[in-house]
Amino acid sequence: MKHLYISSTLSLDQLAGYVANTAMPGYTQEKRDGLNLGGGEYFKFSQNDIEILLVCNDTEHPEVFVESREQFPYYCYARRNAQAALDQVFLSLSKSGLICEFADEV
């Protein structure tokens, strides 16, 4: 599975709104408490049987922190049937000017 790393100076809430409007219109956006994802908050985007999560990539969230990609403060990953949808998110965000890249999960 691949993670979509995103470079942005926006806050998590601001980035989630930007992602929703730019790359995932029509998806349900839900802010969640990340007790099972390393603490803190994250966003779940869902539509039908597709789920994509947006998490912070930092040391405050050690269970989801990917040190080798620490230059990217956020990343998205597919939870259910969503790799093709995540590919589309990458295309939309890249076209909008955000610096994004895919990397294999570590």
What do you see in this structure?
The model has no long low-confidence stretch (mean pLDDT 90). The protein has a six-stranded antiparallel sheet with strand order 2-3-4-5-1-6, covered by helices on one side. It has one domain. The chain starts with a strand and ends with a strand. It is an alpha+beta fold. The protein has helices at 12-23, 83-95; strands at residues 2-7, 28-33, 41-47, 50-56, 74-80, 99-104. It has two helices and six strands, in the order E-H-E-E-E-E-H-E. The relative contact order is 0.28. 24% of the residues lie in helices and 37% in strands.
Keywords, please?
106 residues, single chain, alpha+beta, 24% helix, six-stranded antiparallel sheet
Largest sheet, order of strands side by side? 2-3-4-5-1-6
End-to-end distance: 9 Å
Radius of gyration: 12 Å
- Distinct helical segment count: 2
Helix and strand succession? EHEEEEHE
Which shape, going by the Cα principal axes? globular
Count of distinct strands:
6
Total domain modules: 1
**Average pLDDT, all residues:** 90
